[in-house]
Amino acid sequence: FAQYDEGECLALGHRWKNENVGNFDNIASALLLLVEVASVEMWPDRMYQTMDATPAGEAPKRNANGAPGALYFVGFFIVGSFLVISLVISVVVDGYYLQYAKETGGGLNRTQSLWMKVYREIVFRPPVRIIQPPQNPDWAAQSRAYVFAIVNRPEFEYVITSMILLNVLVMCMSFHGEPSGYTEALSVINDVFAFIFLLEVFVKWFGLGITEYFKSSFNLFDFTIVAVSLVTFVLRMVSVFASGIDPVVFRVFRVLRVFRLLIKAEGLKRMITTLLWSFSALSNILLILFLITFIFAVAGVSLFGLVKHGNFLNHHANFENFFNAFTTLVRMMTGESWNGIMYDAMVQPPECTAGENCGTYAAIPYFLLYVAISAWFMVNILVAVIVKNYEEEDSNDRQWELSPVKREGIEAFADKWKKSFGER
């Protein structure tokens, strides 16, 4: 810290003023600063500045106001953020829950509610067609039937799953600055795994038949990743990557093979089912959030499009055009440095040229309103929708005991239907 007091600073031809951030010089500035602290964004910086505060006219000094400043901010953070803001958000979420109950289940009795749960289970557990093995008596059909039995055994899937996990583990072993020999070894191992998965495709083609193979969305997904791996291998062999194409872009597709594990993970499948049921409500909230951000982006370009860049309002985050404004607001939606951008958008002379690139105090209501609507309300309602559906999914497991139609019965019916009416 500079050790000049106010008189010495002015005598040297400098200006004596607070940093362009929140302060406690008046009630309005103090309230604005405490709102920032309640939003948990950059509050440690403000606390450290207060801990270094000295009497008026003196330069800041390290920990001159240490204990009082720290206790003040930590105390307000606990009360203002952990308690008050959390209570405000809970009121909004509870309001959503009440409206949700009125529109979706408020008029249903227990029997009707149980029927809705059964219907939901049936929708996401439809009968699946069964693939019949080759029936011709010739040796080719008998060979295909033998391979068909192998690829449909659980042990075959366990082996492929193990190969997927090992492949992902090998991909995780790469690091910056690795020796060239180590890099080549990993590349060879990845090629071996790619060959194994290619062999899996050929084996399934032979056992199931090409037509039956591509009727499965999971098989189509596997084939796409194997095809990308082959393209990567071929291009590397002919040194096409020397033209500027990055092979890492193609290697990333290999990681997607992990999603095959969703077939066997019942818990993950139910989580995805819950997300699918949430999609309708989520899409409505996302649309509202998009419209709000769109409106604020247009307004931001008009208000702050010419404002001089500062510490936070820079070439990464600014309102110089609609795209930059929109992405800046999306960033602020997460709470990231929204108050720093707000203060930069309020820059005044002599830090800027009047009538050219100065900010406006309209930034205060603009930023506060957007953060309150998007980050505090809409995003939390978005989370509430998903949490509500997970709660219902969890309660379904307990309420199935009251239902005349059991989940096991639906599974058994789907299995019987598959075996009786599967295409031959």
Please, could you describe this protein's structure?
This protein is mainly alpha-helical and 424 residues long. α6 crosses α8 and α8 packs across α10. It is elongated, with a radius of gyration of 31 Å. The N and C termini lie far apart (83 Å).
What labels would you give this structure?
424 residues; mainly alpha
Write the layout of secondary structure elements.
Elements lengths: L5 H6 L15 H12 L4 H9 L14 H39 L5 H14 L15 H13 L2 H18 L8 H29 L1 H5 L2 H21 L10 H8 L10 H39 L17 H12 L4 H7 L18 H37 L7 H15 L3
Helix pairs in contact: 2-4, 3-4, 4-15, 6-8, 7-8, 8-10, 10-11, 12-13, 12-15, 14-15
Question: Can you give me a brief rundown of this structure?
Answer:
By secondary structure, this protein is an all-alpha fold. It is 67% helix and 0% strand. The radius of gyration is 31 Å and the shape is elongated.
Based on Cα principal axes, name the global outline. Answer: elongated
Structural class: mainly alpha
Order of helices and strands: HHHHHHHHHHHHHHHH
Biggest beta sheet attributes: none
Radius of gyration: 31 Å
Percent helix, as a range, is 55-70%
What oligomeric state is this?
single chain
Beta-strand content:
under 5%
Spans of at least 5 consecutive residues whose pLDDT stays below 50 are none
| Averaged pLDDT | 82
Number of helices: 16
N→C terminal distance: 83 Å
The beta-strand count equals 0
